[in-house]
Amino acid sequence: MGDISDSFEDLYDIFIQTGAILSVLFLYYKKFYQHAKETFLYLRGDESLKVGFDFYRNILIGIIPILVLGFAFKSILDNIKSSEHLLLILGSSWLVGGIIMIFIEWKKGSHEVEGHSHIIGKRDAIIIGIFQCFALIPGVSRSAATIVTARALGVSKKDSAEYSFFLALPVLTVAGFYKLYKHRAILNSETIGILLFGSIVSFLICYFIIRLFISFLRRRSFLSFGVYRLILGLLVILYFFK
């Protein structure tokens, strides 16, 4: 029963992530469609439309490191997640991540001039992709790792967040197909309804959260998120050693 319960929980997480993926696609479908059209025309020889090709190339570059390391060190990562020191690892990750986030936002400042952001290029995509791998450590947020790295490279708050969303699509899709195949035995008429319901709720929640998040970034910085992670990390570490 325990194995079946764990498998269903794992599968449920994937359906939740599917809802999140669909919400990003729904919100940014015009951008994806426009860049897909530009990529097609660029490959047909129109050099002026390289921006679309670069958009998809940078996403591809950004996901390769975490996919390679994620599958190569899967057993080690699973052992870490079941470690008796997991709570300490989580607290330390939140604490260190909060300090880094606060430092980056303090250096960059909370106000930015619209239109003066550093554009993400091939080199940036490689660096962001490498630092995204820290998200394999329990407690390290994938979105926070990519956003903070992009901010350190000079990318605006809005563009950093959106690039993080775009990187999530192929990463979660690949992970989703893998786990869907792995747990295919428990898919039946009883479980599929629950899983689809979770996916729909996830889509609706993520749709509104992403819109609110982007709106929030137009007025504020990531500083408050850094403070939250720092405080949470300290509390968890103190609880571990109590």
Mean pLDDT comes to 85
The coarse overall form would be globular
Count of helical stretches: 10
**SSE sequence, one letter per element:** HHHHHHHHHH
What portion of residues is helical?
Answer: over 70%
Number of distinct beta strands? 0
Number of domains: 1
Determine the oligomeric state from the structure. Answer: single chain
Percent of residues in beta strands? under 5%
Structural classification: mainly alpha
Straight-line N-to-C gap:
34 Å
Report the C-alpha radius of gyration, rounded. 19 Å
Explained architecture:
The chain starts with a helix and ends with a helix. The mean pLDDT is 85. 27% of the residues are buried. It has one domain (2-83, 115-211). With 242 residues, the protein is mostly helical. The chain contains ten helices and no strands.
Structural descriptors:
79% helix, globular
Helices and strands in order:
Blueprint: H1 2-27, H2 29-43, H3 50-72, H4 74-81, H5 86-108, H6 122-132, H7 142-152, H8 157-182, H9 189-217, H10 223-240
Helix pairs in contact: 1-8, 1-9, 2-3, 3-6, 3-8, 5-7, 5-10, 6-7, 7-8
Summed up:
This protein has helices spanning 2-27, 29-43, 50-72, 74-81, 86-108, 122-132, 142-152, 157-182, 189-217, 223-240. The chain has 242 residues and is mainly alpha-helical.
